[in-house]
Amino acid sequence: MVATTVGAVTVAELVKRLEAGVAEVTTSDGWRAYLAAQAKFHSYSLGNVLLILAQMPTATRVCGFHGWLHLGRHVKKGEHGIRILAPMTVRRAEAGSADREDEPQAVTRFRIVTVFDISQTDGDPLPMHPAQTLTTDSERGAWLYARLLDLARAEGVSVRTAEDIRGSANGAYLPSAHAIILAPRLSVDQRAKTLCHEFAHALLHRQTGKPRAEQEAEAEGTAFVVCCWAALNTAQYTFAYIADWAHREDAAALVRKTGSTIQRTAAKIIAALDPAAEAGNTRETA
Ligand SMILES: [Zn+2]
After folding, report:
1. How far apart are CA 22 and CA 93, in angstroms?
2. How remote is the CA of residue 47 from the centroid of ligand 1, in Å?
């Protein structure tokens, strides 16, 4: 089989570059600061989420007084805290009831704790999510988007832009409808990259039992290679995105594990976009 070339490099070499880039992100100071900040934010129970939103509907990130200090921020003077319930385990005797053999020795009680929303604090900015969305609008991005759109539709995948996409997601693939949704606010280059990511999901994950981290690495890795082929550099987004999905696991190992799927899928998409690529012809990408 002739290796698919991307400019002067092969798809396999691009996957190696991806692995090195992801490894580099996860050893950076910025990445460590980001993970440390994430660890400060608990995931709250549904009951507490409702309590928080009832008291402050605009709340986005909440944390205790001292938690904010650890993050280099302080609660502003005169701010009223949001009161939530923290479970705590107390021994039966402390709970004030007579000790009886047939009752558990510990019970869960709740105490009220006070938290504050980020808008009630001042100080250092929080460490940013390291995946930086592409903000550029290039001709290459517009070209790639148009070609991918044709290709997706030829494969029976519908693509639409919709406001009602979940949270901050840039795009989504819905296996049941075999449909891709894109957020409307994306730059031209980010839109091309996101469409490629979701199209890779459509090709690979319509029915799959693979862990989500592997699915995301396969989709984003494929988008990285295809975008490189189109001379669109998505490293600033891709490396951190995959590292984020790997979380505290070895992110480079995740790329190695998914590398052959990334290579195969990217080569397939590139060949469909440009049949000359499969014959081993070098495409000028300067
Ligand atoms: Zn995805």
Report:
1. 53
2. 29
Q: What distance in angstroms lies between residue 78's CA and the mean position of ligand 1's atoms?
A: 43
Q: How far is the CA of 220 from the centre of ligand 1 (A)?
A: 7
- Over residues 157-204, the pLDDT tens digits come to 999 998 877 666 899 999 999 999 999 989 999 999 999 999 999 999
CA of 116 to the centre of ligand 1 (A): 32
Is the pLDDT score of 208 beyond 60?
Answer: yes
The rounded Å distance from CA 195 to ligand 1 centre is 10
3-state secondary structure 121-167: EEECCCCCCCCCCCCCCCHHHHHHHHHHHHHHHHCCCEEEECCCCCC
The average confidence (pLDDT) of the chain is: 85
79 CA distance to ligand 1 middle (Å):
39
Q: Ligand 1 centroid vs 187 CA: distance in angstroms?
A: 18
Closest CA to 269 of 256, 259, 278, 258: 278
Q: Beta strands 82-91 and 106-117: pairing type?
A: antiparallel
User: Can you tell me the distance from the alpha carbon of 153 to that of 118, in angstroms, rounded to the nearest whole number?
Assistant: 43
Please report, for the chain, the start and end positions of each structural domain, with discontinuous segments joined by +.
5-28+130-278, 37-123
By the CB criterion, residues less than 5 angstroms from ion ligand 1 are 216, 219
SS3 content of the chain, % helix, strand, coil (to 5): 50, 15, 35
Q: How confident is the model over 25-66, as pLDDT tens digits?
A: 888 887 777 777 766 666 777 788 888 888 887 887 888 999
Of the CA atoms within 13 Å of residue 221, those in its CB half-sphere come to: 38
